[in-house]
Amino acid sequence: MGKINGLDWQNCKTGEYTMIDLSTKRIYTKRLILKPIEASDVDAIHEYASDLDITMMMYLPNETIDVTKGFVDYVVAEWSKEEPGCMEYVVLLGNKVIGGVGVEFTADRSVCEIGWILHKDYRNNGFTTEAAKALIEYAFGELSVQKVIAHCDSRNISSERVMQKIGMKRMDDTGTRYYPKTGVTSGEYLYAIERE
């Protein structure tokens, strides 16, 4: 088996863009590691989740470390389930947490919604596209998902470009979203990609 991210693995499945360590549920790409969120990741997650420049995400920025800890506690509990309702990962570049990516499933698990966030110091390097592409490959290949969807604020050109780069198509541009923290209402796009 070849090397991805500098590592050889025996207990892995490989895809076009990824190698998956089935024992740890880590997903490896050429440059990144997607690691299931653990309780010890709170401070690293809060570093990007508390960024006051985040203005186009529904529940961010987190105002306190306790809010971030509540999110992490919820996600860790989901990971302990046989079939988690969501699967949230930190994105590692080397040993540095640079963001997060995750999926949330519908009740029948045939569809999931993907989302991402990246620390502002690491944007515009293709990391979000690389992480999202890997997670979609995993969802289609290992989780038997039939369709992956994503939403973004219609003003969020960067997220929309990621959706396009990973092969998603715009399905609806008539949605709206309301930001409870700011009271702002904005347009919302729905993108999707189906399993081939």
Summarize this structure as a short list of keywords or feature phrases:
Aminopeptidase; ten-stranded mixed β-sheet; 10 strands; 4 helices; about 200 residues; alpha+beta; globular
Q: What is shown here, in short?
A:
The chain is of the alpha+beta class. It is 24% helix and 35% strand.
Describe the structure.
This protein is α+β, with helices and mostly antiparallel strands and 196 residues long. The longest helix has 15 residues, at 65-79. The protein has 4 helices and 10 strands. A hairpin with a 4-residue loop joins strand 3 (26-28) and strand 4. Helix 1 (42-49) crosses helix 2. Strands 1-2-3-4-5-6-7-8-10-9 form a 10-stranded mixed beta sheet, with helices on both faces. It is globular and about 45 Å long. The protein has a domain at 12-146: Aminopeptidase, CATH 3.40.630.30.
- Average pLDDT reading: 88
- Largest sheet entry: 10 strands, mixed
Gyration radius, in Å: 16 Å
Count of DSSP H/I helices = 4
Instruction: Determine the structural class based on helices, strands and strand pairing.
Output: alpha+beta
**For the record, what CATH class of the domain at 12-146 applies?**
Alpha Beta
Percentage of residues in strands: 25-35%
- From the 3D structure, determine the CATH topology of the domain at 12-146: Aminopeptidase
